Amino acid sequence: MVQFNINQREIVVKLVYYGPALSGKTTNLQSIYALFNAEGRGRLMTLDTADDRTLFFDLLPLFFKTKAGYKFKIKLYTVPGQVMHNSTRRLVLAGADGVAFIADSQRSESKANNDAWHGMVENLQQNGLDSKTMPTVIQFNKRDLVDIRSDEEIAEMRGKSREPIFTAIATQKVGVLETLHGLLRETYRHLDRQEGFERKFEINEKEFLRQIFVNANTAAAGIRFGELE
Predict the structure, then answer these.
(1) Beta partners for 139?
(2) pLDDT band for position 7 (cuts 50, 70, 90)
């Protein structure tokens, strides 16, 4: 749930990158970190195991201040993908305002994607969160590998999916900003419906997104800023 510190006039929004092991959750955050300038993001904190897989979580804060004097902090978390860390995944999901599900495009990883999705739904429920109303986007990552789901298959899924679907090559910073933008847009709309976000904090959707992405090097990601509006 979005946190509001009245004394400091600070709003904290929690977004979680979820998915199977090695699907590219940490790489998404690393690419976002590299694409944002220092004025718009904090430190990227990562805790790895000996084999360089995420043990607990990665955290990357993005922030900006509104004209009305409110300070926004967007906290991006990842969860560990390995099966034995389910309790940690559940803990990281607690209080989430939005979720990006990072799927592996390789056909061989279809079962891992499905298992992770069902695990996410169950963990949301155990945290008292409804997967049907939780702002969620899906990213099919690793589009540069062989034996992946085709663009036509992705387009077909996009037509049937309730959640917006994006494609990415996170190692090349392709698609990561679009995914983040989509997640922030879905999250803002949900919070506005539930909390009266625009009225309460005097910022509309377009300005909310612009204030975040004005600090992003969209050209380095191969996109124009206008394409994120």
Answers:
(1) 102, 166
(2) confident
Q: Is the pTM of this model over 0.90?
A: yes
What's CA 29's distance to the chain center, in Å?
Answer: 9
Helix (H) or strand (E) holding 54: strand 54-65
CA distance 15 to 139: 14
- CATH tag, 3-228: 3.40.50.300
pLDDT tens figures, 85-102? 788 889 999 999 999 999
Query: Distance of CA 185 to CAs 19, 22, 126, 151, 178, Å?
Result: 20, 26, 25, 24, 10
* Every domain of the chain and the residues it spans: 3-228
Residue 42's Cβ-count burial label (10 Å; 0-12, 13-18, 19+) is middle
What is the β-pairing status of strands 45-48 and 54-65? antiparallel
